[in-house]
Amino acid sequence: MLRPSKKMLFAIEAVLDIAYHAGGEPVQSREITRRQGIPRRYLEQTLQQLVRAGVLTGVRGPRGGYRLARERRRISVGEIVRVVRALETAEDPYQDMPASELGKQVIRPMWGDLSEEIMSRLDAITVDDLCMRAYKGGIPSEAHQKLDFII
Fold first, then answer.
1. Span 77-112, pLDDT tens digits
2. Which tens digits make up the pLDDT trace of 9-20?
């Protein structure tokens, strides 16, 4: 858990992209690919898993795409990480590995504690927090181009 996988980083980037660039319209996967450079083979599968987990909502049709299923302040990075980890592996990779008593009783529990601490920190970071970092960092958003004020 200390080194995030490509798929995990891509998932966080994709959700942040949707939150940051959505405006009033759904965000299409090809837009995310264009802006973030995420390969579509990673993106589509991950987006569908995030829809199943209730992080995103899929919108069908020619102007369809993805939008957040909840307010961005109610979606944590930890939640996204858990969805991707479940997609990557359903098993404990260390369960069947041989280990000494020191490894079993000291090292693995220590590693488990560190993983729990990291997840706790990730649970405290919301997609809204990341959007605010992007805004403060001067990253332009395409959301203003998608807003429609015609009455």
1. 999 999 999 888 755 555 666 778 898 889 889 988
2. 999 999 999 999
d(CA 78, CA 90): 17
d(CA 76, CA 144): 24
CA separation (Å) from 52 to 49, 67, 77, 83, 87?
5, 13, 16, 9, 11
Instruction: Decide: helix, strand or coil at residue 125.
Output: coil
Contacts for 18 with CB less than 8 Å, ≥ 6 apart: 27, 32, 56, 66, 67, 68
What pTM, to 2 d.p., does this model score? 0.84
Ramachandran angles phi, psi of 108, nearest 5°: -65, -45
Pairing outcome for strands 65-68 and 56-59: antiparallel
